[in-house]
Amino acid sequence: MKKFQIGMTFMMLLFFVGSASAQTIDEGKSFLYYERFESAINVFQKILNSDPNNEAAAFWLGQAYLRNDDRSNQDVAKAKALYQQKLQANPNQALLIAGMGQIALIENQRQEARNRFETAISLSKGKDIDVLNAIGYANGNPNSKNGDAAYAIEKLKQATEVKKFKDPDVWVNLGDAYRKLNADGGSAIQAYNEALKIDPKYARALYRIGKVYQTQGPGQESIYMKYFNDAIAVDPKYAPVYYNLFSYYYETNVPVAAQYLDKWLANSDNDPKACYYQASVKFASGLFNETITEADKCIAQEGANPYPKLFGLKAYAYNRLNDSLNAKLNFEEYLRRANPDNIGAGDYATYATILFKFPGNEGKATDLIVKAIATDTLVANKVAYAKTLAGIYDNLKNYGSAGKWFGEVVSLKKNFSNVDLFNAGYNYYLGNQYDSSSKYFTMYIQKYPDDILGYYMEANTSAMIDSTGELGLAEPFYNKVIEIGSQDLTKGNAKTRVLTAYKFFIGHQYNVKKNKDSALYYVNKALEIDPADAQLLNFKEIISKYDPSAPTPKKQPANKTSSPANSPKR
Predict the structure, then answer these.
(1) Which of 93, 155, 187, 340 could form a disulfide with 178 if both were Cys (CB 3.0 to 4.6 A apart)?
(2) What's the Rg (C-alpha) of the chain?
(3) What residues contact residue 207 under an 8 Å CB cut-off, 6+ apart?
(4) Alpha helix locations (H) across 250-398?
């Protein structure tokens, strides 16, 4: 009996030790959920100190290093060394093998990553929810540049089919993977709602639904703000939503942004980011000199490894003060110190605009904006970067390059406008790249068949391509200019454009067709519009006196439209 009691006591002790350990891991995972990474690191490290073979603690400690949006190369190295060390002692720990697969993805070793993931699935027989979730997160989270979102969706769905599945985190990771795969907002929202069925107070799911609507652009504010407020209502400690609202109001309502910053900091770990964001409020308030002073204080306080974005903040402040040299120097320092994964598309684009002010950097600056376009996930931002680059080349009178980037605007925008088409076509026209110009004015005509400008510019472009007039490429377009413009000569530039069309036909009939009567017909039609036009009167005199079929006419009216000196004005 005594042995039985001792055995039972020992078994109860094991139960309580195991339960306490599980609760502590849950505590650490809770800190990760709230994005309090330093607190999570402390919890998992304490568990490993007392239980070095705890696979879950080792995995989640590595995740605490990796999941921080501001992770450095040192963080990745720490996670990798930890996973390798633990796998040396026990090479068959599926969760840690999945963790090594995530490291391989970060290092852009995609096949190695896939091999690790499949090994982890095989070892766990495809029924370990934590392993499948780890693989899904590694491939489908927004920061996974090398991850395979389709593979993530497959494995996360597999996790939801495991017996006794009840993990809202899996559903949210599945929603994130859908968003990553072709920005599938509908399927993402369905997945987030499944998470809320398991836990209605899962603020992360509400927040993610709000983000879906926020990225859909203008007109959705009432919807996404409802979800953000709902997230706060169910869990006031969920810091990420406060940070998002701080960013949202940062450029439009600084006092409100500052309030959300305070709430974010109150629910976050104290780290160098706090000093940075407090300095950034100065920037948002337009106090650029004070921004630089505050940022320098933060840098001095943090010693050898200050928060890299402080240098970026100084660069933006100097740029607003029109101090391009110091802006350039601080951008260079920021890019040197920051993890490339943490550098925003806007950073590349802004740095590029500064580089254009220093001759000889045009190629590098262009490459940076190309990188910004490739990096940013919002089409509106991609369009803004392309327009910026096009405008810079336009100001430099490099019209061919300007046309290329205005053309990129057309390619990027789902509903491009007549202005977008004109900007591309006209800059190519000024750059003497007439085939490219014609491409965009043809598109203009197709989309805006009642707009005279498309026909007018296509006529001028065709006249430059067919410079001798032998092919008559411009004729149908100038005829259309006359047809549309004559309906209301008081409208816009209709009178000028119709006169240009008639002058084309005067020169074309006189010089190319050798048809004096037709040339005079167009002269008279034009004089009906402007009887005092000196050029037209001169044409009439010349054509009336001389026969264009004669071997050497003394004077011929020029076809002004086909002359490079008479490029149409904007």
Answers:
(1) 187
(2) 33
(3) 227, 228, 231, 238, 240, 241, 244
(4) 254-266, 272-284, 288-301, 309-320, 324-337, 345-355, 362-375, 379-395
Tally Cβ neighbours within 10 Å of residue 433. 18
Q: Establish if 470 belongs to a structural domain.
A: yes
One-letter amino acid for residue 563 of the chain? S
Looking up tokens 């040299």 gives 325
Q: Please give the structure tokens belonging to residue 381.
A: 């931002």
Q: Which two tokens stand for residue 252?
A: 């439009």
Question: How many residues are listed for the chain in this entry?
Answer: 570
Among all chains, which residue has been given the structure tokens 């500064």?
354
CA angle 357, 359, 362 (to 5 degrees): 85
Q: Cβ–Cβ contacts within 10 Å for residue 372, how many?
A: 26
The residues, ordered by sequence, that sit 6+ positions from 96 with a Cβ below 8 Å of its Cβ are 55, 58, 59, 62, 83, 86, 87
pLDDT in tens, 30-88: 999 999 999 999 999 999 999 999 999 999 999 999 987 766 778 899 999 999 999 99
How far apart (Å, rounded) are the C-alpha atoms in residues 355 and 368? Answer: 10
Where are the alpha helices (H) located in 67-109, listed in sequence order?
Answer: 73-89, 94-106
**Helix, strand or coil for residue 442?**
helix
φ, ψ dihedrals at 379, nearest 5°: -60, -40
Per-residue pLDDT averaged across 552-565, rounded? 44
Give the per-residue pLDDT at 552: 52
**Each residue of 229-270: pLDDT tens digit?**
999 999 999 999 999 999 999 888 999 999 999 999 999 987
The dihedral of CA 395, 398, 399, 404: what is its sign?
negative
From first CA to last CA, the distance across the chain in angstroms is 102
The reply to whether 115 falls in a domain is no
Q: Which two tokens stand for residue 286?
A: 């337009």
Residue 550 is inside which H or E element, if any? none
Place of tokens 């965009």: 440
Interatomic CA distance for residues 50 and 42, integer angstroms: 13
For residue 385, being part of any structural domain is answered with no
Maximal CA-CA distance, the chain: 136
What separation in angstroms does the CA of 536 have from each of 268, 491, 500, 521? Answer: 77, 22, 11, 12
Cβ count near 221 (within 10 Å): 11
Q: Domain tally for the chain?
A: 2
Over 90: is that where the pLDDT of 456 sits?
Answer: yes
- The first and second tokens of residue 540, run together, are 């009439």
C-alpha separations of 24 from 19, 128, 166 in Å:
9, 20, 20
User: In the predicted model, what is the mean pLDDT of residues 189-197?
Assistant: 97
Residue 205 lies in a domain: yes
Full domain range(s) for residue 551: 459-570
Q: Is the pTM of this model over 0.70?
A: no
